[in-house]
């Protein structure tokens, strides 16, 4: 691993300059940036275990361990924090309900192993085959359907406590538009805090029991997280693993996007770490799944912190990973997060799940997908309706959920439809991005 060189005077970043991955500021400044990364990741990372029923402390532990593992595998050349991936929420929720948490953990392990295998192939063969398998219209559909498939889950929580849910949702939106920079990027975290405090106030003024603090009082300040081993012995496990496999495509898109984002700011050589990034995230997800943690992914929130501070030093991420591990050793911290009311979760997930869907649509917009072509129309349309409606297919004990069916539909319609349209020369195939005519967006020049 490279040794960090001190950037400039170690205290400031010159105008137009960035602190590269192999550089660092002085240690007090590096620790301060690392703490910012912890705050940025916290809002999203704790929500996944709260929503899926996983232990918060265990997820934090493996989030920190996964980050350090990522830095080791990428040879300390790629700054990234590995937090809980929202792409796992739908399959974990379904698997836990039907077969139990052990089977859900086995699904997470399967995703991690497959992602690591893809990373090995990318390291040897490059990314071209991924782009051919999953062009923008397919990638966007798969990312979007995972978010929209969760809409009923958000409503099931929101309707239990509509007032706290509404306050939380409004707070999330207001924070995102009122503030620029770091505060705007952690609007979800701040919205949860506002919703939580509002719920406490409602409970005090009305006497209605909305939050139970008993578990917080009973929890110890220091203690080991709860561990659970992935269950591959349950016959039902293999019937739920299939619903986890589309998550691999989302993690590939997130990791590739992360690497390219960092490369834009620090240098194109960072792109050479793409294969290692996929291997590292796969390894971190596998380890977490084996012992009771949530699946991981690179975090856009932390890219925001790097863009705001212009500090891309991996030293800050060693600080952040270590801090997450320390936080995980307090059961009281986990107990506090487990008291978050259903209404607050409903409010924040109404925004959050919708944003996952919008990320998929943004892939379409950024790549100027031509939706005048029938193949592209049906690739997106069928996949999204399957996800939103919650289609399922079952053969005995084996069931395929909406995410699997929607992803399979997107891949089949696109590739088979293109083959037929090009054979028949009907013009229904994907003709590539819409040609740019004049300026795309922004103020007139």
TrEMBL record:
GO cellular component annotations of the record: plasma membrane
Compartments reported by the entry: Membrane
Superkingdom of origin: Bacteria
Keywords of this entry: Membrane, Transmembrane, Transmembrane helix, Transport
Membrane topology type: Multi-pass membrane protein
GO function terms (MF aspect): xanthine transmembrane transporter activity
Transmembrane segments: 54-73, 80-98, 104-130, 137-155, 161-179, 186-204, 236-253, 311-330, 342-363, 375-392, 398-416
InterPro entries associated with the record: NCS2 (IPR006043)
Entry's family note: Belongs to the nucleobase:cation symporter-2 (NCS2) (TC 2.A.40) family.
Protein name: Pyrimidine permease RutG
Native organism taxonomy: Bacteria, Bacillati, Actinomycetota, Actinomycetes, Micrococcales
């Amino acid at each position: 691993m490279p040794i960090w060189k001190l950037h400039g005077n170690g205290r400031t970043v010159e105008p137009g300059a960035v602190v590269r991955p192999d550089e660092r500021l002085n240690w007090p400044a590096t620790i301060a940036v690392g703490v910012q990364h912890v705050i940025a990741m916290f809002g999203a990372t704790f929500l996944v275990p709260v929503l899926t029923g996983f232990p918060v402390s265990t997820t934090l532990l493996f989030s920190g361990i996964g980050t350090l593992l990522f830095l080791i595998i990428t040879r300390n050349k790629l700054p990234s924090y590995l937090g809980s991936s929202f792409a796992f929420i739908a399959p974990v929720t379904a698997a836990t309900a039907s077969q139990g948490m052990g089977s859900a953990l086995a699904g997470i392990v399967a995703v991690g192993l497959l992602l690591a295998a893809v990373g090995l192939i990318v390291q040897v063969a490059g990314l071209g085959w991924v782009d051919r398998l999953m062009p923008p219209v397919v990638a966007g559909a798969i990312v979007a359907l995972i978010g929209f498939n969760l809409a009923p889950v958000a409503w099931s929580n929101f309707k239990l406590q509509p007032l706290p849910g509404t306050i939380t949702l409004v707070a999330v939106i207001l924070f995102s538009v009122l503030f620029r920079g770091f505060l705007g990027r952690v609007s979800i975290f701040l919205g949860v805090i506002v919703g939580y405090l509002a719920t406490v106030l409602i409970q005090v003024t009305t006497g209605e029991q909305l939050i139970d603090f008993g578990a917080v009082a009973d929890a110890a300040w220091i203690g080991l997280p709860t561990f659970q081993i992935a269950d591959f012995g349950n016959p039902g496990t293999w019937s739920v693993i299939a619903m986890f496999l589309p998550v691999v495509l989302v993690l590939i898109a997130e990791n590739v996007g992360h690497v390219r984002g960092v490369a834009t700011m620090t240098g194109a050589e960072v792109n050479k770490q793409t294969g290692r990034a996929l291997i590292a995230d796969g390894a971190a997800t596998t380890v977490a799944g084996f012992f009771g943690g949530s699946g991981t992914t690179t975090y856009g929130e932390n890219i925001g912190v790097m863009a705001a501070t212009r500090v891309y030093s991996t030293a800050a991420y060693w600080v952040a990973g270590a801090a997450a591990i320390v936080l995980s050793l307090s059961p009281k911290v986990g107990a506090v997060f487990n008291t978050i009311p259903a209404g607050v979760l409903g409010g924040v997930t109404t925004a959050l799940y919708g944003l996952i869907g919008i990320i998929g649509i943004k892939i379409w917009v950024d790549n100027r997908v031509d939706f005048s072509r029938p193949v592209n129309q049906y690739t997106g349309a069928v996949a999204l309706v399957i996800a939103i409606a919650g289609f399922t297919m079952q053969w005995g004990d084996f069931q395929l959920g909406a995410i699997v069916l929607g992803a399979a539909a997107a891949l089949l319609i696109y590739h088979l439809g293109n083959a037929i349209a090009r054979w028949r020369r009907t013009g229904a195939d994907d003709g590539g991005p819409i040609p740019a005519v004049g300026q795309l967006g922004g103020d007139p020049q």
